[in-house]
Write a structure and sequence with these properties.
about 290 residues, alpha+beta, N-terminal domain of MutM-like DNA repair proteins, Helicase, Ruva Protein, domain 3, 4-stranded antiparallel beta sheet, DNA-binding
DNA sequence: CGGCATACCTGCAAGC
DNA sequence: TGCTTGCAGGTATGCC
């Protein structure tokens, strides 16, 4: 499920068990995920210490004292689970989709599970990670200071594509996925079909529209992060699972149901845009 | 270059 | 029950 809020929640959950901790043992149970694991992946991790753990877009980055950065992505179905009892003591054996197991020097066993294997793990040089092919073209962080109506208006100026596609494009804004784009557009009363450039088109409403969208994006994401934190209780479930939380969506997966806006009598519609579902209220989103 | 379709892989729910 | 189909929250690539 991972979009920005889920990845943020995973990072917060992993931090107490990984930051300033050392990899005692690493199990790599297959040779690739979406991309191959790097050469000597296990050897390069073992006995190195994580100096800091953070998120950029939907990537999780662990800076190591070896001078490398461990770069991880959850893809569509990746998740981490933290166990305090080593499997050899609890008697549990790894599942078919448990691809990487980190044994930390604090006793935590952190398992990466990913049925669809759209996730990835790789190691990159700390001095050059900004220029790494996976990170260099990524857009602004939506929870940082750069996101504003002015930014969106400029960024989308001249774009013929839809607002939906423009918001999904990680080169513009990093971390939004299908769900939160649908939710942000709903909150700002903008249609996913609207041409991105019209956000900036001069006119009385243009500033309002762009500012409204910027605020909606920020609020949707921070609400989801807050919900994740509270429903996971310090970001870790009792079963150790991280990053999966129930969140009540206004439009996502609500095809045919009533619009939640009190002043609106519309019904949520599902359409397909560039091969993905968009959910919106055709009555109040314009 | 923009915009779209496609591919990667597995699991699950719905339909027959 | 069992088979087939379509769909899933991400991203890179290739084609026009």
């Amino acid at each position: 499920m991972p979009e920005l809020p889920e990845v943020e929640t995973v990072v917060k959950g992993l931090r107490p068990k990984m930051e300033n901790c050392t990899f005692s043992r690493v199990e790599q149970r297959r040779k690739n995920l979406r991309i191959p694991f790097p050469r000597d992946f296990v050897e390069r991790l073992e006995n190195s210490t994580i100096t800091s753990l953070w998120r950029r877009a939907k990537y999780i980055l662990a800076e190591l004292d070896s001078g490398e950065v461990l770069l991880m992505h959850l893809g569509m179905s990746g998740r981490f689970t933290i166990d305090e009892t080593p499997p050899e003591q609890s008697g549990a054996s790894p599942g078919r989709h448990d691809h990487v197991i980190f044994h930390m020097n604090n006793g935590a066993v952190i398992t990466y599970t990913d049925p669809r294997r759209f996730g990835l793990m790789t190691l990159i040089d700390a001095t050059r990670f900004h220029n790494h092919r996976l990170l260099k073209n990524i857009g602004i962080e939506p929870l940082g200071n750069e996101l504003s109506g002015t930014f969106l208006a400029q960024c989308f100026a001249g774009k013929k594509t839809s607002l939906k596609a423009a918001l999904l494009d990680q080169k513009n804004i990093a971390g939004l996925g299908n769900i939160y784009v649908c939710e942000a557009l709903y909150r700002s009363c903008l249609s996913p079909l609207r041409r991105a450039a019209t956000l900036a088109r001069p006119g009385a409403r243009a500033v309002e529209r762009a500012d409204g969208l910027a605020i909606a994006i920020r609020n949707v994401l921070s609400d989801a992060i807050a919900a994740g934190g509270s429903s996971l209780k310090d970001y870790v479930r009792t079963n150790g699972e991280l990053g999966y939380f129930q969140h009540r969506f206004d439009v996502y997966d609500r095809e045919g149901e009533e619009c939640r806006r009190k002043t609106c009598s519309g019904r949520i519609k599902r359409i397909v845009q560039s091969g993905r579902s968009s959910f919106y209220c055709p009555r109040c989103q314009r």
